[in-house]
Amino acid sequence: MFEGLYSWSAVAPALVVLATALVVMMTDLFVEPGNRIVPWLTIAGLFAGLVVSISMWGTEEVAFSGAWKIGAFSIYFYCIFIVAAIITIFFSMSHEERRGRFPGEYWSLIPFSVVGMMVMASAADLITLIIGLETMSLCAYVMVGLNRGDKRSSEGALKYFLLGAFASAFLLYGTAFIYGSVITTRFAEITVFVSAHSNAIPFNLQVGAILLLVGLGFKVAAVPFHMWAPDAYQAAPTPVTGFMATAIKAAGFAAIVKIFGLMLATSALVLQDLIWWLALLSMIVGNFAAVMQMNLKRMLAYSSIAHVGYLLTAIVGSDPGVSLQGGTGVLFYLVSYALMTLGAFGVLIIIGGGEDRRETLVDMTGLASKSPGLALAMTIFMVSMSGIPPTIGFFGKFYVFGAAVQSGYTGLAVIGILTSVVGVFYYLRVVVNMYMKPAEKSFVPWRRSRISDITLGVLAAAVLYIGIFPQSLLDLARSAFKSLF
Amino acid sequence: MSHDLIVLGLLVLFSLALGALLLAIPRLLGARSSQKGLLDIFECGVPLRDGTQRRMQVRFYLIAIIFIVFDVEAVFLFPWAVLFRRLGMFGFIEMLFFIAVLALGLVYVWRKGGLEWD
Amino acid sequence: MTLTGYLILSAILFTLGVLGVLLRRNAIMILMSIELMLNAVNLAMVAFSRFIPGLDGQVISFLIIAIAAAEAAVGLALVVQVARDRQTVDVDDLTLLRG
What we know:
The complex is a heterotrimer. By secondary structure, chain A is mostly helical. Helix content of chain A is 75%, strand content 1%. Chain A has one domain (8-482). In chain A, strand 1 (61-63) and strand 2 (68-70) form a beta hairpin. Chain A is globular, with a radius of gyration of 21 Å. Chain C is mostly helical. The radius of gyration of chain C is 17 Å and the shape is elongated. Chain C has a single domain (3-86), classed as Helix Hairpins (Orthogonal Bundle), CATH 1.10.287. Chains in contact: A-B, A-C, B-C. The interface between A and C is large, with 41 and 41 residues.
């Protein structure tokens, strides 16, 4: 009865990161506050997790009676999560220099949430997925509220928590209905069940699928479930915002690809129309609301909503039996989005001063003359976000809209391209402010840290390099998606 | 009916009878009094000044939160205990690991001063 | 009682929870409404598990209880932090973040 019950190797990467989190948490208790060994220990542990993950590329293993599956897909996502976490820690260390120390828990919360994400990426069972999602989200709620003494931070955290917990309840209720009609929560068996009943989907399954979509829509902040995102993004310490926008969003899409891109990807469910609407509204609302924002963190929050819309266009109607392009596009896009978003938040962290919060559009004026390197890096990230070649953002958009056209949703792709033109306006407005306007505020000169400079340089180089040679990343994304079935 | 059940039934009857007896004796022998003062607090405790639904010390919330988290984890011990033999060594090690993680949580709470009263 | 009966009860509980989240303004009441929603899920899980083969639903409800406890702990801590900062837990008063 319990064959295939466990396998240490299948959970090795997640265990390494979990051990890191625990060791960091314990170390923090026994050293004096602010000791640099704690973040470096976190980085070392995460790096070990990355090495273990990469060494398992090419293997495939099912464990825990089929609730866990590690394969190229999971490892692709492990790499996104861990790299984003390491970069976040680098940025956090330079953020600390001017904004004061993070409490010691912060360094263990990051690997804890990465463990949750890794569970999501390798879950082969709805319940396993939700446990991972909860682990990740609980850490995220706390991290948003870490600006102690800032009233906005606790307010944002509470709003994020209330809507996040609300969404979890929807996810769980959906799971209950799917369990009731399929008798199991394993992805493989649900997929078989759905294709066997494609001409007469049971009512319970239909309801369950819609509830899952609502829950995951909240988690990735798709319109109309996006209200929390701008508040939470603005309230959180900037490195945490970057982490939320990249790793947490990627984890949400790992779940969406598995559930809606694969398991429930059938026109027999009413889901396709709903996802179509989510994609449309996210692109329109995200882009137009971003235009109005003067605060750059809020602007990036709305822009991330728009990017969720672009990603969803690749999910709509993607039938992996016909074409791999939809899933591959999403996987490629997530990497491109992670690189440029982390970069943009990195720049915000560096210019964001001490007591005064420099995070508005006005604060960017005259940056080019004060710090040409920083302005150049920001330009590269903004150009990439607006999807102009030769950057990685261009290929990301190219692949997701291509997938939408291929599955017959040309209209949606056209709307996507039109709304990204709006995006070009507000992204390039930042560049115009940096290069063409004189400084409106006199800056207190900031101390630069070498770590964040190097990280930014690497990110900018990656955005350009993959923008010119996208093929190898695309191949990785394709084989990762293929490993799912 | 098996022998055990008869014994159990006798035990129940005996305890019911004993309880009834202990209640009946003072009622038959003791003096009656219906003064209101009898229902008040006697010797132990100060007189009540307000209702029970009043504000609590906020200190309790931290203890309560810690309690909830550790308490609910016990829910996993019950199914594990039922299947202990069939799960074998793996189940044992897994549960040791689970409890070890909980213990680390306790160490954390302790060191952070979450259990201090003041 | 049939499966439909349990499911209707669970749907009523879940709807009450959703209404509570949407209509109540006190953060603690919202938190309690979310707990109510999770308990509706538990009821549905256990009911399904009673009427279909296998015990998965009952095991899952253990996991949901643990999730609910963890959420309650984090949520209450955040509510207390907001109450300390602002002397209110009314979500309509939390308007520092707008734009």
